[in-house]
């Protein structure tokens, strides 16, 4: 388990990460989603011990990363954004050097290097200098060095950066395989990456958590969409009379037909019955009443427009 507890990171007067808390359990695939500059990379650097928080605490399998940095880091495989590598080294030599840094026993290195090279489809490039590789292949080298010591946690910053469509598909498959025996945290600003491989999404906006939810729960909403015929004033009175409407968002109108999104304080089933009764009792025509359907793209847009409240 990785626990991030009230973590803040400041650079002078600028707060890059502001009071962030979350817990990631074994076996999860969690996506950190946000626009460039939202604070994702800073959070990942603190999770790996590369940066120290200005405040707060991070632990990896109950090892406080500030007090037991080497112990915590031994459990992590990290792919930083634009992964640095020695360009004059061959792929195999660089991975062997990385294995030594991770204290992989000499007797196990050859087997573990072969496995990492196979997993990232680098067999044809193993003897080539890194300087001769395309950006996509360099990204694969970065992933290979992150997985070769078989850590319990993989922290991948933009893992599909620079890959072509077929390589992206292969990378998604690798992430799923890694999650069979380890925890995977990846950052991205691409919605499709989260939807393709993650179980859970943490949306970061301006250094804070705007949403922390399992993807399966995102279609659920505490809002009802209702279409009524009559005046909008009469509709507002009916919604108030229902006794369960916390907020009303007027979506659109066509003549005397109006559509509203209603944030409700009860279950959508109970609230729907009360709203239908109030609308009909108020002499209005009821054309439609159904739960609001959401997807990750819609939620992400609402958050970045400032219309979606944070939740955990």
Question: Which value, in Å, is the CA radius of gyration?
Answer: 25 Å
> Mean pLDDT, rounded to whole units?
91
Computed structural class: alpha/beta
- Low-pLDDT stretches are none
User: What's the main sheet like?
Assistant: 6 strands, mixed
Report the helical percentage: 25-40%
CATH superfamily of the largest domain: P-loop containing nucleotide triphosphate hydrolases
In total, the number of domains comes to: 2
Strand fraction: 25-35%
Question: At the third CATH level, what is the topology name of the largest domain?
Answer: Rossmann fold
In the sheet with the most strands, the strands line up as 6-7-8-3-9-10
Q: Quick one: how many beta strands?
A: 14
Could you give the distance between the termini? Answer: 17 Å
Count of helix runs: 10
What gross morphology would you assign? elongated
Order of helices and strands: EEEHEEHEHHHEHEHEEEHEEHEH
CATH architecture of the largest domain: 3-Layer(aba) Sandwich
Specify the CATH class of the largest domain: Alpha Beta
Structure, described:
The protein has ten helices and 14 strands. It is α/β, with parallel strands linked by helices and 312 residues long. The chain folds into two domains: 2-217, Rossmann fold (3-Layer(aba) Sandwich); 223-293, 2-Layer Sandwich (Alpha-Beta Plaits), CATH 3.30.70. The strands form three sheets. The protein has a six-stranded mixed sheet, with helices on both faces. A four-stranded antiparallel sheet has the order 2-1-4-5. A hairpin with a 2-residue loop joins strand 1 (2-11) and strand 2 (14-24). The chain is elongated, with a radius of gyration of 25 Å.
